[in-house]
Amino acid sequence: MSRIRMFFVVAFVVGAVILYQILSAEIMNKLKEFATLKAMGYSGFYLNKSVLQQATLLALLGFVPAALMATVMYRTGQA
Known about the structure:
Layout: H1 3-29, H2 31-39, H3 44-78
């Protein structure tokens, strides 16, 4: 495996772990709100969809700045 592939694999794993930790903490903080929604009659599908939307948003908001910073750092290193 080339160095660049190994770098991307490690970066992906680190990003996934960080995303998991952030999302896990957010869900634990909102557990009472989720329980209230469930008691009001919202389906489990709705709650799962809400969590998946939050995970997607966090991933995208983390990816864009990281990609920009990586590009700047790469170009700076090439000069």
